[in-house]
Design brief:
Layout: E1 2-3, E2 12-16, H1 20-46, E3 51-54, E4 57-61, H2 65-70, H3 77-105, H4 108-111, H5 117-128, H6 143-167, H7 173-178, H8 182-210, H9 212-220, E5 222-226, E6 241-242
Antiparallel strand pairs: 1-6, 2-5, 3-4
Helix pairs in contact: 1-3, 5-6, 6-8
Length: about 240
């Protein structure tokens, strides 16, 4: 099925940017991740064990008591567990649809880094911080984006895997053992969640830097850019996008 692009101003060309499945799974993750983090913090409050320190002297704790009190997280552990487990299945299902689409349509070829991307990613970062005049050429995603998006996908697999390991440590003892036992699996789950949250924060900063057009392309599926007049008709034509 092909859907005509929305009408664009006469001096702009609409280019297909993001297929519908990519957009839907992307936006569904917004409320899913919000609930997962909220409920996960409520669970962590009940056993807030991770901190930096020397011996018994704690130098740094991730979340002080005031943090939990301000967000109303210092009670209702059972509610947090119920929301976390049920929403976790939505996260798994949404992620499975996304991965299946990448594999089925071979869109993964635009996403997985190649052997040149590590070097090009440095140039992308230098360009972003205004230490390099020109960004290296790229396809749908630049080198830094490909590394980041592939990395966060691997983090998601770790989050799900360790989540199951600490949810059913006896029934899934082989999986729990693969992660080094319950305590190690819980530690990995905690740090991968921190890493995932850091990616989301950085992603929001980059979206803000890139402007409203980049954000709207994830809503409409199209990017708009100036284009020369069509040689045969003198008109500028929007492209179609496959859905």
């Amino acid at each position: 099925m092909r859907t005509a692009a929305p009408s664009s101003p006469p001096d702009l060309l609409a280019r297909a940017a993001h297929p519908r499945v990519i957009r839907w799974t992307h936006w569904l993750n917004v409320p899913i991740l919000a609930v997962m983090v909220w409920s996960g913090l409520r669970i962590y409050w009940a056993n807030d064990v991770y901190a930096a320190g020397i011996g018994s002297w704690e130098v740094f704790g991730f979340f002080p008591d005031g943090f939990y009190s301000a967000l109303g997280l210092e009670r209702r552990l059972a509610k947090g567990i119920a929301f976390h487990l049920n929403t976790g299945w939505l996260f798994v299902l949404n992620g499975a649809v996304y991965v299946a689409y990448l594999l089925g349509t071979r869109q993964w070829r635009h996403l997985v880094p190649d052997r040149h991307d590590a070097r090009d990613a440095v140039d992308v970062v230098l360009h972003d911080v205004h230490l390099r005049a020109d960004a290296p050429p790229h396809g749908r995603y630049n080198a830094a984006q490909k590394i980041a998006y592939t990395g966060v996908l691997l983090l998601a697999f770790l989050i799900v895997g360790t989540g199951f390991a600490i949810y059913k440590p006896t029934q899934l003892s082989l999986l729990t053992g693969l992660f080094g036992g319950y305590e190690t699996a819980r530690l990995i789950h905690f740090w991968t969640t921190i890493g995932f949250s850091a990616f989301v924060a950085l992603h929001l900063v980059q979206v803000a830097r890139s402007g409203i057009g980049n954000l709207m392309s994830m809503v409409t599926g199209f990017e708009y850019s100036a284009a020369p007049d069509d040689q045969s008709t003198g008109e500028r034509r929007p492209e179609d996008v496959s859905s």
